[in-house]
């Protein structure tokens, strides 16, 4: 059966939304067979599906179990697609330390950000969820990343972000790194207020923000 590119991407989105792992795997294979760009399939098929689920949750149309099913289903597509995504070697490689801030266990979005950054050519050190400030500091000292990405999905945990910024400054690790933040309650205004260097509302934006930071950084050298 022949599908257009749009049909394939839409089918992937629908399979993620339905939490149907078999369909996700099927359409991930169709992506490869039909020569659709696997990166595009991740961004516009898979990640889009999770965005739809978040919107539906906010409207009260779906509940947490369905979100978790969708995330599992999406992972089946990602496993098939990821090995085929061509990492853009022409781009300046950057290193990102990524984690969900302390008190917060929501990591589905952070995991998507991680995957898209990796396929975009970044080295990602993933500290996981509910990450204590000191762990960020120790990792920054040990790994000397270009960028630190902080994720928070709750207003309470988001309030830990300004504290983290102070901790980074006090620990003298702020210089030379760019801090970007994201997650449901995070806004551009909040990012500016706490002195973050960047902010993104979704995973593709996270990649764009990191690309800009790396571009400016190399341009300045
Ligand atoms: C799934 C879910 C859970 C799951 C999490 C499973 C997991 N492994 O992640 C479970 C069941 C564990 C859970 C628990 C709780 N949850 Co909950 N949860 C959700 C839910 C429904 C979906 C979140 C999600 O995965 N969305 C899909 C992903 C793809 O989207 P995303 O996370 O936003 O990520 C995208 C962007 O934000 C961005 N992004 C994310 N991180 C970063 C980082 C950077 C640097 C950048 C640039 C971008 C970026 O890119 C991502 C991909 O595009 C949300 C509702 C919602 N609409 O968000 C509530 C929600 C976040 N939870 C909420 C609450 C209150 C809780 C609990 C306290 C409930 C309770 N009473 O026990 C606990 C908290 C536990 C804790 N200490 O953390 C509230 C938070 C309210 C608030 N504003 O503070 C929400 C908003 C629901 C609500 N409306 O009340 N939850």
Helix fraction by DSSP (H/I, runs of at least 4): 55-70%
Across the major sheet, the strand order is: 2-1-3-4-5
The fourth-level CATH homologous superfamily of the largest domain is Cobalamin-binding domain
Domains (count): 2
- How many helices? 10
Shape: globular
Q: Provide the structure class.
A: alpha/beta
Separation of the first and last Cα atoms: 52 Å
What is the CATH first-level class name of the largest domain? Alpha Beta
For the largest beta-sheet, the strand count, sense and barrel status come to: 5 strands, parallel
Secondary structure topology:
Layout: H1 5-18, H2 21-33, H3 38-58, H4 64-81, E1 95-100, H5 108-119, E2 123-126, H6 133-143, E3 147-151, H7 155-158, H8 160-170, E4 178-182, H9 188-193, E5 198-200, H10 203-220
Parallel strand pairs: 1-2, 1-3, 3-4, 4-5
The structure holds cobalamin.
């Amino acid at each position: 059966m022949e599908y257009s590119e749009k049909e394939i991407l839409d089918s992937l989105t629908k399979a993620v939304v339905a939490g149907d792992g078999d369909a996700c795997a099927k359409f991930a294979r169709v992506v490869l067979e039909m020569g659709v760009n696997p990166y595009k399939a991740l961004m516009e098929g898979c990640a889009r599906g999770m965005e739809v689920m978040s919107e539906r949750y906010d409207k009260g149309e779906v509940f947490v179990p369905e979100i978790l099913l969708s995330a599992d289903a999406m992972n089946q597509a990602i496993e098939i697609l990821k090995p085929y995504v061509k990492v853009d070697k022409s781009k300046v490689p950057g290193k990102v330390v990524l984690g969900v801030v302390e008190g917060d266990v929501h990591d589905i979005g952070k995991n998507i950000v991680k995957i898209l950054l990796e396929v975009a050519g970044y080295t990602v050190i993933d500290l996981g969820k509910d990450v204590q400030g000191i762990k960020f500091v120790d990792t920054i000292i040990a790994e000397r990343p270009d960028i630190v990405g902080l994720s928070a999905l709750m207003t309470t945990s988001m309030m830990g972000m300004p504290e983290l910024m102070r901790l980074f400054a006090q620990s003298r690790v702020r210089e030379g790194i760019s801090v970007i933040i994201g997650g449901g309650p995070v806004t551009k205004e909040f990012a500016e207020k706490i002195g973050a260097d960047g902010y993104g509302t979704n995973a593709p934006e996270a990649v764009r923000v990191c690309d800009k930071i790396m571009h400016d950084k190399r341009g300045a050298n």
